[in-house]
């Protein structure tokens, strides 16, 4: 919460010296639990009695809220704290005793939305009214509870403890919360504390000492900023004071604190020169240099030249995270000449632990530079194949620029690069893309020769395993061709009959629907009719096969089998653990095996496990009926070279 410390002090001063007549009326009013109306927008409580009382009989004339007919939170909660604490006459030596007392007040339980502010104003009233050492007041503080940290840090500019007391409290916070980003809010309170001091001479003499205290080091920037506000000395003064203190343990903290002062007086270039000189002299490491450049928004050619000198190694994960953080925040065009080599080198790395960061970075690039992001992704895929696919990047590009993606996808299948073929197959497995993105517009196919289109078809059959993407690609490919070519027709029909439709009989339904389209080209209709004719004949021949009568076992053997199955079932019921949740339900033992059925009128087998029949997916029939032959076909399609196809 944003606090006006002068206002808090003024409110406490007035409340602490209320006239006896006002005290008496407040006692009568607060003696019973009151139903309060809270106005969170205007930060006030609608209590007309209290408002009239303090506006006519006290010095609260400096408090005005025209938009609310009530009493501001800070005034009302301070009045409650004053009334309760004065009546209870408690001597709360430590903060947690006071907080426990506040939690028992009626307003605390009835209005939990005010709990944090009530606790703060109660603590503020107490420390302002009862002089007490901050170190004594915070006895028992362990730094693990952020609610308590927030409350006590907010008190710092009010209590104004000695710098020694402050350091003792900060050490506890730092030791428990050093890796929590919320510690920056503590630093903000430290800065406000320094601003409230009459003199910073004590702190100034200890600045060098602070740089060697790892627990206080996280607050160096806030402390130095507050000191600078008091002293108004040039930034060179602080750099001269601290540069000899630089060590690998404190270099980032010192340079961040000094850099903040340089930036406050708009001397950015001077501080950038300091960073480069420290890097070139070997006094700071490259990761620290890069973090500080990122912190201070130095995204320029000089920094990228330094990055390019150091080729990132896959084993240096911390360095790579720093580099990707820098590239993510980079606020210049990603396709600038001196950025491109660094981007490409980064995305060609193979490290599983960093894939999420790489995906996040490339997704951001894709939002403004879709074509460039695809180029970077393609170079990564040439190195890593299918395992280099960054799913979120692909999804982002598909949703924002589907045609750009479709062009690139077909170019991957049309290449001579096995790794790009593998990557294209991997992309079709990304469920979030949806299958419609793989229906390729005719103009994309029309830029390819018939030989290239057939080559794409073979690679698609060899590497794409999902029924929906296969269906969309092959249907769109066939519909796009208008030039009659007997060699192409023969090759496509054979590919569809022996592998694509043979594995996924559900595609026949799509083909029948396409033949009903009056705008279908003669070429496409010829292929679709040929496929339908082939499978009509295939299923007709299957139906003509005479089914031999099944040989039944002897009746006595069947009875004996049922007897032992019944015994087995009874034994299983007896062994069921008593009290187990499933014992509330009927126990049924099933001899569950894979099975395959083809109902009359259907053109495909449904192979599934008992009890898990699904109508939403189709298993590849050919893969189940003839797995070796299907794997052979797939390997052949994968190894076909462009120079082996010449049908134009």
Task: Describe this structure as you would to a colleague.
With 648 residues, the chain is mainly α. Helix content is 62%, strand content 2%. The strands form two sheets. The protein has a three-stranded antiparallel beta sheet with strand order 1-2-3. Strands 4-5 form a two-stranded antiparallel ribbon. β4 and β5 (606-609) form a beta hairpin. α22 packs parallel to α24 and α30 (486-503) crosses α32. The longest helix has 22 residues, at 522-543. It is elongated and about 110 Å long. The two termini are 74 Å apart. Residues 578-593 and 610-616 have low confidence and may be disordered.
| Oligomeric nature of the chains | single chain
On the 0 to 100 scale, the average pLDDT is 85
- Distance between the ends: 74 Å
Strands, total number: 5
Low-confidence stretches: 578-593, 610-616
Walk across the major sheet and give the strand order.
1-2-3
User: Gyration radius, to the nearest Å?
Assistant: 38 Å
Q: Could you say which structural class the secondary elements and strand pairing correspond to? A: mainly alpha
Tell me the overall shape.
elongated
Q: Helical content, roughly?
A: 55-70%
Give the number of helices.
35
């Amino acid at each position: 919460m944003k606090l006006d410390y002068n206002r808090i002090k003024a409110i406490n001063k007035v409340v602490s010296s209320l006239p006896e007549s006002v005290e008496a009326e407040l006692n009568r009013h607060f003696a019973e639990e009151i139903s309060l109306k809270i106005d969170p927008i205007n930060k006030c409580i609608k209590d007309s009695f209290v408002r009239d009382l303090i506006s006519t009989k006290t010095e609260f004339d400096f408090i005005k809220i025209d938009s609310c007919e009530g009493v501001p939170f800070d005034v009302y909660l301070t009045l409650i704290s004053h009334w309760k604490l004065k009546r209870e006459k408690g001597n709360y030596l430590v903060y947690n005793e006071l907080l426990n007392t506040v939690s028992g007040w009626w307003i605390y339980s009835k209005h939990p939305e005010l709990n944090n502010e009530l606790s703060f104003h109660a603590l503020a009233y107490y420390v302002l009214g009862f002089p007490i050492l901050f170190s004594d007041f915070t006895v028992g503080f362990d730094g693990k509870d952020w609610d308590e940290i927030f409350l006590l840090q907010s008190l710092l500019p009010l209590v104004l403890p000695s710098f020694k007391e402050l350091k003792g409290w900060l050490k506890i916070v730092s030791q428990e919360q050093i890796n929590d980003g919320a510690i920056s809010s503590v630093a903000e309170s430290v800065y406000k504390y320094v601003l409230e001091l009459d003199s910073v001479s004590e702190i100034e003499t200890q600045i060098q000492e602070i740089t060697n205290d790892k627990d206080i080091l996280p607050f160096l920037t806030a402390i130095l900023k507050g000191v600078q506000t008091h002293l108004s000395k040039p930034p060179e003064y602080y750099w001269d004071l601290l540069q000899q203190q630089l060590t690998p343990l404190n270099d980032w903290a010192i340079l961040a604190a000094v850099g903040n002062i340089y930036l406050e007086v708009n001397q950015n270039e001077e501080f950038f020169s300091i960073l480069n000189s420290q890097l070139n002299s070997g006094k700071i490491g490259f990761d620290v240099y890069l973090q500080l450049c990122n912190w201070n928004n130095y995204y320029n050619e000089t920094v990228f030249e330094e990055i390019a000198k150091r080729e990132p190694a896959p084993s240096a994960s911390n360095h790579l995270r720093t580099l990707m953080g820098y590239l993510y925040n980079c606020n210049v065009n990603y396709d600038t000449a001196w950025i491109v080599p660094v981007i490409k080198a980064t995305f060609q790395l193979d490290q599983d632990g960093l894939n999420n960061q790489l995906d996040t970075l490339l997704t951001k690039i894709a939002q403004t530079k879709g074509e460039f992001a695809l180029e970077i992704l393609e170079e990564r895929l040439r190195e890593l194949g299918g395992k280099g696919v960054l799913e979120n990047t692909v999804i982002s590009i598909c949703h924002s620029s589907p045609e750009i993606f479709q062009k690139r996808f077909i170019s991957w299948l049309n290449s001579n690069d096995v790794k790009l073929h593998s990557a294209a197959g991997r992309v079709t497995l990304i469920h979030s893309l949806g299958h419609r993105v793989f229906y390729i517009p005719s103009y994309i196919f029309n830029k390819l020769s018939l030989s290239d289109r057939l080559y794409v078809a073979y690679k698609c059959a060899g590497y794409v395993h999902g029924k929906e993407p296969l269906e969309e690609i092959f249907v769109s490919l066939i519909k796009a061709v208008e030039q009659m070519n007997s060699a192409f027709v023969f090759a496509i029909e054979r590919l569809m009959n022996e592998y694509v439709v043979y594995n996924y009989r559900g595609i026949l339904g799509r083909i029948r629907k396409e033949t009903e389209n009056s705008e279908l080209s003669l070429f496409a209709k010829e292929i679709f009719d040929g496929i339908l004719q082939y499978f009509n004949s295939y299923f007709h021949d299957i139906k003509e096969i005479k089914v031999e009568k099944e040989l039944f076992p002897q009746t006595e053997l069947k009875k004996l089998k049922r007897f032992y199955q019944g015994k087995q079932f009874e034994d299983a019921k007896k062994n069921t653990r008593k009290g187990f949740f499933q014992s509330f339900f009927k126990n049924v033992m099933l001899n569950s095996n894979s099975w395959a059925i083809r109902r009359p009128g259907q053109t495909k087998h449904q192979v599934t496990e008992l009890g898990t029949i699904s109508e939403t997916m189709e298993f590849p029939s050919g893969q189940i009926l003839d797995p070796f032959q299907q794997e052979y076909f797939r390997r052949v399609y994968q190894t076909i070279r462009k120079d082996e196809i010449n049908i134009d």
